[in-house]
Structures are given as C-alpha cells and as structure tokens.
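Q: I have 264 residues here and want to know how they pack in 3D. Can you give me a structure?
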Amino acid sequence: MGFFSNLFGKKTSSIRSLAQLEFLEVDMHNHLLPGIDDGSDSVQQSLHYIQELQRLGIKKFICTPHIMAGVHQNTKFSIEHAKDSLVEGLKKSGNNVDIFGAAEHMIDENLPLLIRENELCVMPGGYVLIEMSYLSESKALFHTIRDIQKLGYKPILAHPERYNYYHSNFNIYKQIKDSGCLLQLNLLSLSRYYGVDVKAIAMTLLKSGMYDFVGTDLHHQRHLDALKNIVEKYPIREMLKTSPILNETLLDHIIQHKAQVIAG
C-alpha cells in the first residue's frame, strides 16, 4: 500500500504528542471572541479554549467571528470591543498570548457594501476570510473575489471541503484557485467529524496541493474535544505536507501589524 493509503486509511492506535500543532504557529480561523456569534459565550470560556489550544501547540490566534446579514451583524467596532474584553481577561489570567481580530465574511447581500466602503475586517498580511452558505452556492463568489482583490487584499475561502454542492465538481476548486483565492482547511475535516464525504474531498484537495491555510474553526467544547482526538490519533504534520500550508508565514505579518499599532 502507498503512503496515503496507510496515512488516510486506518487510524494508528498509538497516542501522539498533544503539542503536535506547534508547527502551525497560528490558528487563523476560530470563533474565540466572546459573546458575538455562535462561538464562545464568555471571556471565561474563551480563556479555557485558548489554554487548551495552546496545549496543542498553537501560539497565536487570529479570531474570525462571523459577519452575516440578519444573523451575526458584527462590525469592526463590535469585533474590536470583544477582542479588547478577551485581551483584558487574558492579562488578568497571566496569559500573554497574542490575539488579533478579523472576521469570517459571509457572501451575502451585505458584503458588497462592506467592500465598497472598505469596511472589511482584514487579517494581518492583508488576508480576508470569506465563506458561503452550506445550503447553496453563491453566484457572487468570483465577483466577490475580484472585488476584494481590487482593494489590494487576498481572499481566503473558508473550509471549501464543507460545501457539498461542489463535491461532484472538482474543477470548481481549480477555478477558485486560478482566480487567486486561497483555500483554508478545517482541521476537523481530517476526521469524519463533518461526515465521510467532507473528509473524502478534504483528502483529495490536500493530496492535490490545493490548501494554503489551516484553521481550527473552533466554536465550542465539542469541537475542542474532537480536535484533541484528532491530534492524538493522526499524524497532522505529515498529512499536511502535500499542500503548501502558509500559517507560519503569518508570524511576520503579525509582528509588522503589532509594530504599526504601537507606532500609532
């Protein structure tokens, strides 16, 4: 049997180091900011999640709460406020981990306005995380990608493996990549957490070298427990070697961002 047959077939029974996500350095997609979407409910809960993710090896966090018309109507202000609350909580707890606020932007009727007014919540490095509904494809995807690029930003499509309507059309992923949009894998997709079909397409994208970033997309304790299980049982770093994962490159952007903030 080949490398991937062994790697993605039966799970190893050995228990691995819980800190094996250390090589990623940065979790660039999560819902750790308290009380503003369907993620963490409170600062205390966020502190718990962050502490547990640090034990898995993650050192810095770019927090990406939803911006979704009529559901999670966040703004730069609400996200910054939630981030400040979390930073204060971290200081009180003696945890000096770096936290940054961005967003996961739903492609909906409100996004064109945010783009037009340049009110997107941008990650260090000029990246903008976007997502679509799980129920139906957004016909505005490629138009949105171009509009974000016109502002000088680099779009990242969150968890493309979870859009079931693309599973029978692998060519669409190539079209998205060819348009200049980067792709982000959810770590939980390496298991069957979201279902067999999601895992299958995630493995195909991974082996095809299509992914650029990896995120936990952590919302709640069930996600955290599942992540711990994956980290214990799967050789994550080996599995990701077939794609040019760029999480570590975010460190330089984070340092530059902090310097700019300090300089005013």
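Q: Anything worth noting?
A: Residues 18-263 form a domain with the TIM Barrel fold (CATH 3.20.20.140). The chain has one domain: 18-263.
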